């Protein structure tokens, strides 16, 4: 894959792929020229390549001057763990020092397995407005489309917290206990606390502003009757000309059909809560992200512009819209709501667990495991596709709840559980005296890690993990217009790919070897690699609010 050079080679977070790109571009030149290998087949012969075709844009016949290669080796050999850099018919091929990198990374796992908090010049605040939860009548009223937006907002909130943002979520659901309880069942801990501040005064202020606004159509607003059914809907208090405001302020990115808002009090209360939340932080450092399904996008743009009109005399808070594409269901259950969808997947998970484990599947502990697995299945189904893209959900497919379906959340959980079981077996063997206690990492010789899959797991997953998490939101600060596009599918895809490569390795390599002293070093080196993978599983699942399983 091609990587952008967006990091320095002396980054304090240890060895980074971005640091490699920065050094290669600084010495040998070429943005977008250098490619990190990722497949097992290619990694057996090289770790980086500058293809001759790409290099030909910089040098005659794609031949890099030897003095530049010598300079790269002289300046960066040790800092970037370069073993060799040679020119071949395919281009410039770079091999890294695998044993040295195994030692550097596996001796400093927290540098690679924990989220890297952004160095923010000022405290940044993200306010996530989950539009489907505004004025929600109850859990049965939530659609699968809306559940997708809710889970996306919950995931994004955790990713931003891990990166050092102050995150606030709205709406507060303190008066909707049924919705709060359903969200908890799918692992979402939304704001459901008692509010101490009343929005009544702010709503009254908004009404006064609209009554005096040049954008409000003044005069009698007539309610609909049997004779005039197409007049204003019930409870409409103001008719506000949004298009006039958008054109005067030269705002870009809004729907061209945006014209008039028929304002009901519920819209003013929604804006009042948003404004109250913003004012608890520094408004200049806040970004309000409206997480919205495509079917509600137009209405939310009205709320956005109406809020701007209500605050036209003060600095405007940054507003962005994160839009979720539609979910289309196929199979036997075409028109089920979010609650029915959860119950359907849970019943499938219950049935599958009984078939696999028998009558022991009962009691509170198993109910908790099944709920957790169901939540994982649903999150991977709804979040593994780019948020703006349509999603086809085949409810007839049982592979989604099978641990053998390599693209499913159940498969990810199964492989995370295999690591837990592996370390349980190791600890039990230590207690029985079969193995010695785990030594200090400084005592391990990582040159014993020579299996092809071991380097692939380190190089593709442990080393780049923190950079992968950072890439999820890297477009936030540079976004223009009102729409925001975030790589919210990244974690799910990363975990699926990790699970497939780990499963392949685990099925092929016997990690816990015979209790013979001359085999202990290789076993401990492999276990240290597995520790790194276990921490990555836990950290990544944590961004999805999925508790890691402790048993198969």
Q: Can you give a write-up of this model?
A:
The protein has 552 residues and is of the alpha/beta class. The chain has three domains: 17-96, no CATH class; 125-329, HUPs (Rossmann fold), CATH 3.40.50; 342-543, Isoleucyl-tRNA Synthetase, Domain 1. It has 19 helices and twelve strands. The chain has helices at 17-28, 40-43, 52-55, 66-76, 98-106, 110-113, 144-162, 177-185, 200-212, 242-248, 265-279, 297-310, 338-357, 364-383, 409-431, 452-462, 465-472, 490-508, 517-543; strands at 35-36, 48-51, 82-88, 91-96, 125-130, 166-170, 236-241, 260-264, 286-293, 318-324, 327-330, 391-394. The strands form four sheets. The protein has a four-stranded antiparallel beta sheet. Strands 6-5-9-10 form a four-stranded parallel beta sheet, with helices on both faces. Strand 3 (82-88) and strand 4 (91-96) form a beta hairpin. Helix 9 packs across helix 11. Mean pLDDT is 88; it is low at 1-12.
Largest sheet data: 4 strands, antiparallel
What is the CATH domain class of the largest domain?
A: Alpha Beta
What ranges have pLDDT less than 50 throughout 5 or more consecutive residues?
A: 1-12
> Superfamily at the CATH H level of the largest domain?
HUPs
The proportion of residues forming helix, as a percent range, comes to 40-55%
Identify the overall geometry: globular
**Straight-line distance between termini:** 34 Å
**Structural class category:** alpha/beta
- Total helices: the number is 19
Cross-sheet strand order for the largest sheet? 1-2-4-3
CATH architecture of the largest domain: 3-Layer(aba) Sandwich
Q: How much β-strand is present in the residues?
A: 5-15%
Rounded radius of gyration (Å): 27 Å
CATH fold-type name of the largest domain: Rossmann fold
Say how many strands there are: 12
């Amino acid at each position: 894959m091609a990587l952008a050079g967006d990091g320095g080679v002396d980054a304090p977070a240890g060895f980074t792929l971005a640091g490699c790109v920065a050094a290669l571009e600084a010495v040998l030149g070429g943005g977008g020229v250098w490619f990190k290998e990722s497949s097992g087949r290619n990694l057996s012969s090289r770790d980086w390549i500058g293809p001759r075709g790409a290099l030909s844009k910089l040098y005659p016949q794609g031949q890099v001057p030897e003095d530049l290669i010598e300079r790269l080796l002289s300046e960066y050999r040790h800092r970037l763990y370069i073993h060799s850099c040679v020119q071949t018919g395919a281009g410039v091929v770079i091999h890294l020092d695998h044993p040295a990198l195994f030692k550097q990374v596996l001796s400093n796992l927290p540098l690679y397995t924990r989220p890297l908090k952004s160095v923010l010049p000022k405290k940044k605040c993200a306010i996530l407005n989950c539009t489907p939860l505004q004025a929600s009548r109850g859990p049965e009223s939530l659609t699968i489309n809306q559940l997708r937006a809710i889970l996306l907002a919950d995931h994004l909130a955790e990713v931003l917290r891990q990166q050092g943002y102050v995150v606030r979520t709205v709406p507060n659901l303190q008066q909707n206990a049924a919705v709060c309880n359903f969200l908890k069942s799918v692992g979402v801990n939304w704001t459901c606390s008692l509010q101490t501040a009343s929005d009544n005064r702010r709503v009254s202020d908004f009404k006064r502003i609209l009554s005096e606004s040049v954008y409000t159509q003044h005069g009698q607003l007539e309610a609909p009757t049997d004779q005039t059914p197409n007049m204003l809907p019930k409870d409409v208090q103001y008719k506000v000309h949004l298009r006039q405001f958008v054109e005067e302020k030269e705002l870009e990115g809004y729907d061209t059909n945006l014209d008039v808002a028929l304002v009901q009090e519920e819209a003013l209360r929604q804006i009042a809560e948003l404004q109250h939340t913003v004012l608890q932080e520094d408004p200049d450092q806040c970004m309000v992200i409206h997480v919205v399904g495509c079917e509600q996008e137009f209405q939310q743009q009205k709320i956005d512009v109406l809020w701007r009109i209500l605050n036209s005399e003060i600095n405007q808070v940054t507003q962005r819209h994160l839009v979720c594409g539609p979910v289309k269901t196929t199979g036997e259950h075409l028109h089920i709501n979010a609650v029915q969808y959860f119950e359907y997947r849970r019943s499938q998970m219950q049935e599958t667990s009984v078939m696999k484990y028998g009558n022991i599947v009962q009691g509170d502990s198993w109910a908790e495991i099944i709920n957790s697995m169901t939540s994982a299945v649903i999150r991977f189904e709804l979040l593994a596709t780019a948020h703006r893209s349509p999603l086809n959900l085949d409810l007839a497919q049982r592979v989604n709840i099978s641990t053998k379906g390599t693209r499913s959340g159940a498969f990810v959980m199964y492989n995370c559980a295999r690591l837990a079981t592996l370390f349980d077996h190791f600890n039990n063997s230590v207690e029985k005296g079969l193995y010695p206690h785990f030594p200090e990492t400084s005592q391990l010789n990582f040159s014993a890690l020579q299996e092809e899959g071991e380097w692939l797991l380190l190089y593709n997953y442990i080393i780049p993990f923190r950079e992968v998490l950072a890439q999820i939101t890297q477009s936030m600060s540079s976004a223009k217009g009102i729409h925001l596009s975030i790589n919210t599918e990244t974690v799910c895809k990363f975990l699926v790919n990790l699970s497939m490569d780990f499963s392949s390795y685990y099925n092929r390599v016997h990690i816990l070897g015979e209790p013979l002293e001359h085999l202990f070093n290789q076993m401990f080196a492999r276990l240290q690699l597995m520790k790194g993978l276990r921490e990555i599983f836990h950290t990544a699942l944590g961004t999805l609010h999925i508790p890691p399983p402790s048993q198969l």
